[in-house]
Design a protein that fits this description.
Layout lengths: L6 E4 L4 H7 L5 E5 L5 E6 L8 E6 L2 E8 L4 H8 L9 H6 L3 E8 L2 E5 L9 E5 L2 E5 L2 H8 L5 H6 L17 E3 L4 E6 L2 E6 L10 H17 L7 E5 L6 H14 L3 E7 L8 H9 L5 E5 L28 H13 L4 E3 L4 H5 L5 H8 L1 H15 L3 H8 L5 H8 L29 H17 L7 H27 L2 E3 L5 H8 L3 H4 L7 H7 L17 H10 L1 H8 L3 H4 L5 H9 L2 H4 L4 H23 L20
Parallel strand pairs: 13-14, 13-16, 14-15, 16-17
Antiparallel strand pairs: 1-3, 1-9, 2-3, 4-5, 5-6, 6-7, 7-11, 8-9, 8-10, 11-12
């Protein structure tokens, strides 16, 4: 993979901040009134990232990302700002997904998105706080060591957002939905987004959700553009295809729909995609199974420049190959339905919420859930009676980290998915995760009072960093992956709808179906299945087992004392079907081990000490020498 990393850094208005500027590459794209540098940005190939800037009096604004804002529009917004807090109006008014930098006097505010798709990190360099969108860039500036305890937490695979702290010592994350306010004296965090209460009926919520999603698609379609869009036939990519088709027609562009062939005769994506294609314009591209690359291809090749392990990593070669293929068809933007499941599939714990807020709505949905999942009635009553707070639920997970997976057909109405470490995790990893859980659980607060709302937001925050990394990696090669479902306005619109209206027995993704009726033919909205990709998983694992074993041999996770080498080899030598183990521990190992090897490769290339903290054999102390 290309080692170049797109990044930006925000500096305080001080002599020390100007000193940090001398350590950075890139170009200064925004100054303070003092002429000191404020915003420094760089891109692969030395081309500056697209930044829209505006200045009105002593106020300066910069927007970096996917939004169609013009400098004139930004100037109008800047005219409304007298203090940094007033910059809330910018995020509220602009569609798309972007970072925002606002300057008032000698103070600066920097923020990403509420979805976590665009993150902000900060660190202290000799007493000076600097912020940026890349934890890895700040860690290199600081010469920071890997935080071994934070690394151990990533072995959970599905890591709740409050536990997913940056992987370098001394680098902190700004919570999504909050902004970092920097001045010469330090940093202050201020929340600018909160999830809406789920009180809007579907009759009003569905049109609002559709309008937000349409706006998100339009934000990425410029005049005359060739736009690619996944078309699996499912209820995430298909709505985007219809919205994109309308957008390119209005702007004299062209649509390229894409579907990946799957070698599974029971896979029904193609049949549903054909229904949609009868109503869409443009060109349709479909690859053969295993093309452009199979799953697990190149997993032993370190992926440089990632802030954290990319979960999942094993389909990355397929994704980047697709980016090159779509670029050959003229597209630089590739719309995907990623994030649609996280946002619109309501977790089972909504039943726990309905039992307390709308008991009349509980029983038909509980009956449907029991019929579908074969839950015993007594187990359901026990799960519904759970009164634990989020902090108590987290604390209880400490004793379950190495417990067996819950039995099949066991209803789980908890705050998150159960936390389990893989069988190959060493005792040092278990101890490290338990320590981190004890600390987090002391003051943990849910994102919402409803368990389902909290879990949806947590799922979005957990997966958004991987989608952000995918956008960066595919953009370097060809058509950049975009995820309109995770635009803040789309997320807010979905979360505002009543839970019992988002879950309708017999209807899959009720919110999406209701929202898209004015935009799609009825025959494309009746799907209730979701295709399985086990064939790709097993075929890729068989074809690239040597690469997976190469990661297990000489594992850096084992050198850190976080993994048992023999157990790792055992997991990698067979398939989940052969070993009887779930796939998640294998997928987690591939992602985390590749990330560690990338840190080692990056340190060799740059001369930095980013692999500090590793030693061979036994547990790793937090003060382990370089």
């Amino acid at each position: 993979m290309d080692a170049a990393v797109t990044w930006f850094v925000v500096l305080p208005d001080s002599a020390a901040g100007a000193g940090v500027r001398r350590l950075l590459g890139g170009a200064t794209v925004l100054d303070y009134a003092s002429r000191r540098p404020c915003l420094v940005a760089a891109s692969p190939g030395g081309v500056n990232r697209a930044v829209v800037r505006a200045q009105v009096g002593g106020v300066r604004l910069a927007v970096i990302g996917d939004t169609p804002v013009t400098a004139t529009r930004l100037e109008n917004l800047a005219a409304r700002i007298d203090r940094l807090e007033d910059a809330d109006v910018v995020a509220a008014r602009l569609p798309g997904s972007f970072h925002l930098v606002a300057v008032v006097g000698d103070r600066v505010r920097v923020q990403g998105t509420a979805s976590g798709l665009r993150r902000v990190f900060f660190t202290r360099l000799d007493g000076t706080v600097v912020a940026g969108d890349r934890a890895s860039v700040l860690a290199a500036l600081k010469g920071a060591r890997v935080d071994v305890e934070a690394l151990a937490v990533r072995l959970l695979g599905l890591v709740p957002a409050p536990l997913a702290t940056p992987l370098w010592e001394g680098v902190s994350a700004v919570p999504p939905g909050s902004a970092a306010h920097l001045d010469p004296g330090g940093v202050r965090l201020r929340a600018w987004w909160a999830p809406p209460q789920p009180q809007v009926p579907l009759s009003r919520g569905a049109p609002a959700f559709a309008a937000a999603l349409e706006e998100a698609v339009n934000a990425r379609v410029g005049p005359g553009m060739v736009v690619a869009c996944d078309l699996s036939g499912g209820l995430d990519s298909t709505p985007l295809s219809f919205l994109a088709d309308a957008a390119v027609r209005r702007r004299d562009g062209r649509l390229v729909t894409f579907a990946r062939g799957v070698g599974d005769p029971a896979h029904d994506d193609a049949a549903w995609a054909r229904r949609a294609l009868r109503h869409l314009s443009g060109e349709h591209v479909r690859t053969r199974p295993g093309e452009p690359a199979g799953w697990f291809a190149d997993v032993a090749t370190p992926v440089l420049g990632l802030d954290e392990p990319m979960f999942p990593l094993h389909p990355l070669a397929c994704k980047t190959g697709t980016a090159a293929l779509l670029a050959a068809h003229g597209a630089r933007v590739h719309l995907t339905g990623h994030g649609g499941d996280e946002l619109t599939v309501v977790p089972h714990c909504h039943l726990h919420d309905l039992a307390r807020t709308r008991p009349a709505a509980l029983w038909p949905r509980l009956r449907a859930g029991r019929a579908r999942e074969r839950w015993p009635f007594r187990s359901c009553l026990h799960a519904l009676a759970d009164r634990r707070t989020y902090a108590e639920w987290l604390a209880d997970q400490i004793q379950l980290l190495t417990a067996p997976e819950p039995p099949a057909h066991h209803p789980d109405f908890g705050w998150e998915l159960p936390l389990r470490l893989p069988a190959w995790a060493a005792p040092a990893a278990v101890d490290a995760v338990a320590r981190r859980l004890r600390v987090i659980a002391r003051d943990a607060r849910p994102y919402a009072t409803e368990r389902a709302q909290h879990q949806i937001i947590s799922n979005v925050l957990r997966t958004a960093p991987a989608y952000a990394a995918l956008q960066d990696l595919t953009g370097r090669i060809g058509a950049a992956t975009h995820v309109p479902f995770l635009d803040d306005h789309v997320m807010s619109a979905a979360l505002a709808v009543r839970l019992d209206h988002r879950v309708v027995p017999g209807v899959y993704k009720a919110l999406t179906v209701a929202a898209m009726r004015p935009y799609m033919p009825p025959e494309c909205l009746t799907r209730t299945t979701k295709a399985d990709f086990s064939a790709d998983f097993y075929e890729g694992l068989r074809a690239h087992r040597d690469e997976v074993l190469a990661l297990a041999d000489g594992s850096l996770l084992a050198e850190y004392g976080l993994a048992d080498p023999a157990a790792l080899r055992d997991v990698c030598a067979g398939t989940p079907a052969e070993t009887g183990r779930p796939a998640l521990p294998l997928i987690t190992f591939v992602a985390v081990e590749n990330w560690l090897r990338a840190q080692s490769a990056g340190a060799e290339n740059t001369g930095t000490g980013s692999t500090a903290g590793r030693r061979k054999g036994g547990p790793v102390r937090e003060d382990a020498p370089t």
